[in-house]
Design a protein that fits this description.
Elements: H1 2-15, E1 22-23, E2 32-33, H2 44-47, H3 56-67, H4 77-91, E3 97-103, E4 119-126, H5 129-133, E5 142-147, E6 160-166, H6 175-185, E7 186-197, H7 203-217, H8 230-240, E8 243-256, H9 259-268, H10 284-298, E9 300-302, E10 307-322, H11 347-350, H12 361-364
Parallel strand pairs: 3-4, 3-6, 4-5, 6-7
Antiparallel strand pairs: 1-2, 7-10, 8-10, 9-10
């Protein structure tokens, strides 16, 4: 009797619409599940684990405070230079994008270079309203300003032709989820072009602070935010489903009069540390020691300026990925090659006849 009472709930479950996959309940109480061979869709979030590293509220406050400064334009030279380089990569694509989105646009460091023949409409997104109000866009390009957090943006599915971001995604906690959202919002054959700071950024300042704290305090604290590694960007693009991926690295070395000027410009740019485990303060003794170590290890005389200075390295990881589309070129099947690589030294013998190809007007542009 006890066994029959235990089976009754199972039989009632089998009759419900919620559990249509339960069937064939045998007399001994065993339940067989209907097997399904539907594979789960691979996403970046299913491959990479999200880590809650950055305090987004603190970062938004830092950006707003920096944007409200009257001297902000004196410290944004890095974002202006990298924004122009990112826009130049877009110009290499011979296409007119109807709808583009710049995520973490700041003052529109990429959008300000758009021309009507490359982008018809751009949606500038940033978490700072002050930045959006000061954003610059060329005449002839339709612009829309949207106040949104870079982690929580949402656009209709397959509604965007171009997604671009310049030096903003390195503060995003859920980077895998961000890549998945971009993939979902892009139209087929849409492109995602972005750049972030790499792991070697500010390596001189990082080493100087570590040596100074080791000497003064006997340990080190994370004063500089962790940055993304190159191999992680390629893995995220692949896991999110992007095709025709490209990842390359640039390195910018900027000279400052001293380490104090490096830290001052970082705070003025709104790029101060916003990690949850950041220390509350940096003692003045440690600051003076770090500045002295910085100058001793990396400083040198600059003949052009007739003064001494120190370098600050900024590693820029540039990447590009396309949303899959049947019209995109695909690699030939394995084994379809007619010439072996070991015969390349006989290339003149292999190519027995030459052909002349006439260039079209589009090819000459």
């Amino acid at each position: 009797m006890a066994q029959n009472r235990l089976l009754c709930p199972v039989l009632r479950i089998c009759k419900s619409k919620t559990f249509q996959s339960l069937k064939n309940v045998s007399n001994n109480g065993c339940v067989r599940y209907q097997s399904t061979n539907i594979p789960k869709k691979k996403t970046a979030s299913s491959v990479y684990r999200t880590m809650n590293i950055f305090d987004r509220k603190a970062k938004i406050l830092q950006k707003n405070r920096a944007a409200q400064s009257d001297k902000y334009h004196l410290s944004e030279y890095i974002k202006e230079e990298v924004g122009w380089r990112t826009a130049d990569r877009i110009f290499d694509i011979k296409r007119t994008f109807k709808t583009a989105v710049e995520l973490g646009a700041g003052r529109g460091y990429v959008s300000r270079h758009f021309l009507p023949d490359s982008v018809e409409k751009v949606i500038i997104c940033d978490s700072s309203q002050t930045h959006l109000d000061k954003a610059i866009v060329e005449d002839g390009v339709e612009v829309e300003r949207v106040l949104v957090d870079e982690e929580n943006f949402d656009f209709p599915e397959e509604s965007v032709d171009l997604f671009v971001s310049s030096l903003a995604l390195h503060w995003v906690n859920d980077l895998p989820g961000c890549f998945d959202k971009v993939m979902r919002c892009l139209k087929p054959d849409g492109v995602f072009i972005a750049c972030v700071f790499g792991g070697d950024t500010l390596m001189e300042l990082r080493q100087s602070l570590q040596l100074a704290e080791s000497e003064r305090l006997g340990g080190v604290y994370p004063h500089i935010s962790p940055f993304t590694r190159i191999r992680d960007i390629g893995g995220l693009l692949n896991a999110a489903g992007f095709t025709l991926q490209t990842v390359d690295v640039d390195s910018l070395s900027i000279w400052f009069p001293s380490a104090w000027h490096v830290m001052e410009d970082l705070r003025a740019l709104g790029e101060a540390n916003a990690a949850y485990n950041r220390p509350v303060r940096l003692s003045r003794d440690t600051q003076f020691a770090a500045a002295a170590i910085y100058d001793e290890m990396y400083g040198k005389e600059i003949p052009d300026r007739k003064s001494r200075g120190v370098p600050a390295t900024f590693q820029i990881i540039n990447f590009l990925g396309w949303k899959p589309d049947p019209t995109q070129p695909r690699p030939m099947e394995r084994g379809s090659g007619e010439v072996s690589l070991k015969d390349l030294h006989k290339i003149d013998e292999i190519i027995k006849e030459t052909k002349t190809i006439e260039l079209t007007d589009d090819d000459k542009k």
